[in-house]
Design goal:
Helix content is 37%, strand content 23%. The protein is of the alpha/beta class. The protein has a single domain, classed as Rossmann fold (3-Layer(aba) Sandwich). A seven-stranded mixed β-sheet has the order 2-3-4-1-5-7-6. It starts with a strand and ends with a helix.
């Protein structure tokens, strides 16, 4: 049993924000693998299904980015999912735009959604970090992550979502390095 978590903010005006790339990945996985219709549960939008022989839960927390851990803790306690079986998809400023990096555990590196999850379930979970690049000029980081992707970036993020989804069977087996190299080489 695995839990996929996509980080983002639930307001309609946030839908295309850089900070919402995790939501986009969950939507792509839901569509490709015909997971159940999203239902509001555990302070998030939950879907279920299978990928290969693994039972999958996928959630988009509705608690806003900075409180994502509240939703995740409720869900893993209810379904008795070990934190080692949680995989979080999120934006990352320190990764080149359009690239992904994976890791197990580690620091939040200033990402408030990850810090919240760390607070509520610890650090023993996997992360898929989707690069959104760094702001250019004098724009504040908080403003940058809450900006919408431009048209070209949107096209690229859609391709990355598709590449991640097409390679998800590798991630389901928790082969993080192979997953990263497969997606980055598409």
């Amino acid at each position: 049993m695995l839990l996929f978590v996509g980080l983002g903010n639930p307001t309609p005006d946030s839908e295309n924000n850089r900070h919402n790339v995790g939501f986009k990945i969950i939507d792509s996985i839901n569509k490709k693998f015909n997971l159940t219709k999203q239902k509001p549960k555990f302070k998030g939008l939950l879907t279920t299904g299978t990928i290969g022989d693994k039972k999958i839960y996928a959630i988009k927390p509705l608690t806003f980015m900075n409180n994502s851990g509240i939703c995740i803790r409720e869900l893993i306690e209810y379904f008795k999912i070990d934190s080692e079986n949680v995989i979080v998809f999120h934006d990352d400023l320190d990764v080149e735009f359009g690239k992904i990096k994976t890791k197990f555990g580690g620091s939040s590196a200033g990402h408030n959604g990850i810090a919240s999850i760390d607070k509520f379930i610890g650090k023993d979970y996997s992360r898929v970090r989707i690069g959104i690049g760094k702001p250019k000029g004098s724009i504040e980081i908080a403003d940058f992550v809450l900006q919408n992707f431009d048209d070209e970036e949107t096209i690229n993020i859609e391709k990355i979502s598709q590449d991640i989804t097409e390679s998800i069977s590798i991630l389901v087996e928790k082969k993080l390095d192979l997953f990263s190299s497969t997606v980055n080489n598409k």
